[in-house]
Amino acid sequence: MESSPATVEVRKDETTRLYEALIDGRVVGTLAYETTGARVSLTHSYVDPNQRHRGVASALARYALEDLGRSHNKVGIYCGFVADYVQGHPEWRETADIARSALIATRTARDTSRGS
Question: Quick one: 68 exposed, middle or buried, by C-beta within 10 A (0-12, 13-18, 19+)?
Answer without folding.
Answer: buried
